[in-house]
Specification:
Layout: E1 2-3, E2 9-10, E3 24-25, H1 28-33, E4 49-53, H2 61-73, E5 77-80, H3 84-93, E6 106-109, H4 120-130, E7 136-138, E8 153-155, H5 159-169, H6 176-181, H7 183-194, E9 197-200, E10 204-208, E11 214-218, H8 229-243, H9 245-250, H10 254-274, H11 281-286, H12 288-296
Parallel strand pairs: 3-11, 4-5, 4-6, 6-7, 7-8, 8-9
Antiparallel strand pairs: 1-2, 9-10, 10-11
Helix pairs in contact: 2-3, 2-8, 5-7, 8-10, 10-12
């Protein structure tokens, strides 16, 4: 057995935990606690600033969707510091987004990126985000870099992405099908091995962290399984982490709570957008302000 930079263990013949860990179902009442409305004394900086490195020339829409979701979930500012083409599209959709670097309270990285074809300029941006020491939400094309993080980490993989991450770090790692067949067990195992909070996407979302937090979220219609939906979830979570950066610094389990809240908001917004019919990812973002208001009420 060996140990990597974050303390993750490489285990021969890795297998699920015993299944006796109790799971807590995350509710609207739970989620409402982790939504912060601004006060009259707040400004755009005190409300939270999210740094974003997402999207690519091949998948520029991921940047648009994540930024749109973050803005509509509620925070003071988004700094988009990704590639030029996605930045142009982000500004066309959200002209209030800042594309200059500066201080942030949290990062969202990896959506719409591919580690196998990552340009060097994207690699430089990602390395800077991981080295910043701030809480970081890691999706898709940046999952290979989590060992380099200097701050708290929450990852948001689907089954295939989690299988790949585990295969890179363990021998005898599970297949995507094995994870899909027993997600509750493998999300716990992943949190223990990787030493990060893990949000495993699915119709039922499972969230676990190394401190023993075990949360389960069942929200959203089956229509939610659509392209770009995960990018929206990342934006929601990024906004929540940016507005709760102090809580994350004070409490190791806060990232898991925020992840479960993001999954709940994501599902509830999708229900509102769908009304029983099909939806696209952008439809979910447009339902976010009313969904957040409903939870605050």
């Amino acid at each position: 057995m060996s140990t990597n930079a974050r303390g993750a263990r490489a285990v021969d013949g890795a297998s699920p935990v015993d299944g006796k860990t109790p799971w807590r179902d995350w509710t609207a009442d739970d989620a409402s606690i982790w939504i912060t409305a601004p006060m009259e004394s707040d400004d755009k900086y005190s409300r939270g600033v999210l740094g974003v490195v997402t999207g690519s020339d091949r998948y520029p829409g991921a940047a648009v969707l994540g930024v749109e979701a973050a803005v509509r979930t509620g925070l003071g500012m988004v700094r988009y510091v990704g590639a030029a083409h996605p930045a142009e599209l982000v500004l066309q959709r959200r002209p209030e987004v800042v594309t200059a670097s500066g201080q942030v309270q949290a990062w969202l990285v990896g959506s719409g990126m591919d580690a196998a074809t990552r340009p060097e300029d994207d690699a430089t941006r990602l390395r800077a985000a991981f080295a910043d020491g701030k809480p970081i939400v890691v999706d898709a094309g940046a999952l290979d870099l989590i060992d380099s993080a200097t701050g708290p980490v929450v990852i948001t993989p689907h089954f295939r992405e989690l299988a790949k991450v585990l295969a890179e770090r363990t021998t005898g790692a599970p297949s995507a099908d094995a994870i899909a067949a027993d997600p509750a067990q493998w999300v716990v195992r992943a949190a223990e091995l990787l030493r990060v909070a893990v949000l495993l996407k699915g119709h039922t979302t499972y969230v676990a962290d190394p401190t023993g937090t075990r949360l389960r979220v069942t929200a959203g219609p089956a229509w939610l399984a659509t392209a770009g939906s995960g990018d929206v979830l990342g934006g929601i979570l990024g906004a929540l982490v940016a507005t709760h950066a102090r809580a994350v610094a004070a409490d190791a389990s806060a990232l898991a709570m925020l992840a479960a809240t993001a999954a709940f908001i994501h599902g509830r917004a999708a229900e509102r957008a769908s009304a029983g019919g099909p939806i696209a990812a952008l439809d979910i973002t447009e339902s976010l302000p009313v969904t957040v208001a409903e939870l605050l009420a």
